[in-house]
Please model this.
Amino acid sequence: MSHALIEVCDVSKQYRRGKIAVPVLRELNLTIEQGDFLALMGPSGSGKTTLLNLLGGLDQPNSGTIEIDGQCITRLSARELARWRSQQVGFVFQFYNLLPILTAQKNVELPLLLTSLSAAQRKFRAHTALEVVGLSERADHRPSELSGGQQQRVAIARALVSDPALLVCDEPTGDLDRESADEILGILQILNEEHGKTIVMVTHDPKAAKYARHSLFMDKGELVAAPDRESLPGNAEKAKETAL
Amino acid sequence: MKFFGLVFASLRRKPIRTGLTAASLMVAFLLFGLLEPVVQAFSGGAAVSSENRMWVSPRHSISDMLPVRYHQQIQRLDGVDVAAHQTWFGGVYIDAVSSSAFTRWAVTPREFMQVNPQLELPLEQLDAFINTRTGAIVSRNIAERFDMKVGDKIPILADIWHNEDGSQWEFDLVGIYDVIEGDSVGANRLLVNYDFFDEYRIVGKGVISNVVFTVADLAQSASIAASVDDMYSNSEMETLTVSEQDYLLNQIKQLGNIGLMVRAIMAAVFFTILLLTANTMSQALRDRVGELAVLKTLGFQDVSVLLIVLAEALLLTLITAGAGIGLAAYLLRFGEYVVPQISHWSLSINSVLLGLAVAFVLALLVGLPPALKAMRLNIADALQR
Ligand SMILES: Nc1ncnc2c1ncn2[C@@H]1O[C@H](COP(=O)(O)OP(=O)(O)OP(=O)(O)O)[C@@H](O)[C@H]1O
Ligand SMILES: [Mg+2]
Model:
């Protein structure tokens, strides 16, 4: 029944450092099913964030195509891409990236400013999203008045509020203690299982990867065979050694 | 405007920095508001006068006086419509501060009101002024300020014109006149009846300060002025006849080109403020590259981000400009009680608009560079950090 939500086709990405082009992704191919929860692992610098940015439409590849839900996002202009992002993707980052001047509620409302919803509707939607992450009592708090775990929950609520099909999370628990991390991962799991969100999550933490349905391993800009779940920690260590 | 909350909130993010910038902007605009009337005053815009009124004064010294017969002689000249005369009374009303709020003149009531149609006096009050020897009239702003009412006795202590009883004069207020907008000559004056004044003064009987006349044909004013001055060119008291505008302007010009100087100072102040604010703004932008990248990530268009940053600069400068200019208007309004010389200074609507235009340009100059930078910000780079 499930169909492919994301089709990455021969995608290459390189960054320029002065005159030298540094290849980061090389002719990468990847299919992600609708409703999947994918953990993307790999050593630092292997290109995980770069790939995630491409999937989320934050950047464009040098070659290749990315199709998401039938839409070829690599053909969109910057303007169209911004519009697409606001409707189709939710982002969660390692350092939450909330606006410190806004309350939790207002942070969650941000993406809705781009819609035609009325102020009352925006408020209601944001409140609902905060309820999903169990933080509606803290709606009026500023980020500085919240713990790291709570801030990340606000960030998830913000990613959810426009009801996108896809969530991309870059090390969402990278800055959190075990307990908060488990809370966050639990929420992501619920979003995946009960709300049908497709999630792509970059993580360094094998325990975090266990919350996902699948894991992929990246090394030097290429996807390598996914190790089975039981041997993940060992493989991660080995990969780190080879990367050094 | 949905983004307004966002713009407003980001001004509050560093309250001290925003506060200091706002304070320096406000001081600059306060200065603008206080100095702009000076520029206006010294650009000759202070007293708006009629083009067809001519002033005849002693040619050589302002301390000279004209014989009163000049009035009748000038009245008889071809082309002269109505001639009146006025004599500087001076004197002290209550104290030095109150005295300097207005000037006091002895005039020929009927003719003076004819050559100054911008002074509106009810007919029965004009009659009373003409027919009351000790009569006096005053402009409404002064009457209101000193709570003078028709029927009041107005005591003036003479400093030039002593009378038979010493230096104490007393006039009966018989009228209060309004000054029509567009011609402010005659505002801030107390006018007394010349006949009584001349009769009662003990020195200098029969001399006046100026003859003021109107011409029927504006095109002839120069030649009429010349014939007045010709008429007295070999007399004991030569005259200088100029239009009222030129007369007032000359008085001001004797003080040098103060308007230009003040403008130069203001330009320097604003240039400094420009540099300071531009620096603060670009620093503020550097601090929040991440935040702007987040907005873009969420799907805010590049142009929206540009407008948000620009709107911040606009909001800051317009609010501070409004506050600074408003404060200046307030100080000018109430400052006249402390510095009576500025009593006729006020902020014109043009000055306020000029101030807001300056604020707008300032906002563009300081806001556009960071706004453009914000617009061009690459999300992936900015989030990398
Ligand atoms: N904007 C950029 N400009 C230049 N080089 C970049 C840029 N972004 C990433 N790189 C380089 O590309 C490579 C891959 O970076 P990327 O951030 O995708 O790695 P990653 O797998 O997410 O690493 P980490 O686990 O440390 O987050 C790195 O060598 C990095 O230095
Ligand atoms: Mg990364």
In short: The CA atoms of residues 96 and 195 of chain B lie 27 Å apart. The interface with chain A takes residues 2-3, 5-6, 9-10, 12-13, 290-291, 294-302, 378-380, 383-384 of chain B (CB under 8 Å). The two ends of chain B are 31 Å apart (CA to CA).
